[in-house]
Amino acid sequence: MSSIHTNHSSIAALQNLRSVSSRMSDTQQQISSGLRVGQAADDAAYWSIATTMRSENLALSAVSDSIGLGRAILDTTYAGMEQVLDYFHEFKNLLVMAKDQLPAVTNGTWYDYERDSVYDGTALGKLDLQMRELFDAMTDTIAASSFNGVNLLQVEKGGRSLAESVSFVTGIQGSTILTTDVQLKDVVLINYNRTGDFYDNQPGAEEQGILDGKVDIVTYELFATYFSSSTGKVERNGDHYIIRNGLWNYNNTPPFSSQPLETYFDDFMNGVEGKIEKLTQAMATVGSLQTRMAIQDKFVTLLSDHVESGIGRLVDADMNEASTRLKALQTQEQLSVQALSIANTSADVILSLFRQ
Fold first, then answer.
1. To which H or E segment does residue 169 belong?
2. CA 21/CA 6 separation, integer angstroms
3. Which one, 9, 43, 94, 226, has least CB within 10 Å?
4. Do 274 and 335 sit in the same domain of this protein?
5. 314, part of any domain
6. How much is the pTM?
């Protein structure tokens, strides 16, 4: 039925055009954003899940950053330990050479009493100087083994207790941040916060870093040493040089007359070996923690990728499908416009009847 009041064909064509235009607008939005569910109105359930998962992924990203920071600290710590160990090996070589240069001892005293100026020019004196320089290099290396202000190899005067620990982030479980701890006593090489210097089996030794403490040494003459808390160095006492450093306080308590000089020298070598063993154990502690952190870092990265993939399955648009649908809708829109144009010409047909 034709009517001059209502063009039913035009209304139907217009409704179809609006529907096509609306679907085409949605498809264009998906193509431009890459999202099938970009807001709650698109799909409330999927949008809610995706929003929660995005929040969790942000937390995973923060955890990954924290793990990366921890790994950098541990890498710096291990590198410092490795360099100090190299210095110790070089030091051992110098000790072996120094043993061959020991002077003779007669009746419990040195064969020839010499002042520092003379001792400095001897082969033993020169080796002594090289060894002291090595210990200075160790001290500098330990002080420089810092990342982002964190140095696990030394404790400054007034710093923390060796009974404390340092925590490293390893992951997240729900809203709980997972951490692992390393005891300072297991990694600190120099504790400038200690109250004194002791042999390893003495009370108070628990305050010492791995390379702190007393070790018997004989190089030239019976001597005593003392630790200077103000400089953190082992100081010379009297007129004679000793092998000194910023790590140990060397004492020589047994009289020379009781045993051959080489025996005391061997005791010192054993003391050096003991420090090397402790340093090696500390490196193993750091190395195992490095391995754990690397595994956790890889896991968190993998988990984050899976979460991101899961979000994509929920809300991402299928671009191939969307582009194909857009092409079809564009064709439908053209046909709808043409149908509306045809429907609008029906009134012209009625008018032509009246002209006749």
1. strand 165-173
2. 23
3. 226
4. no
5. no
6. 0.71
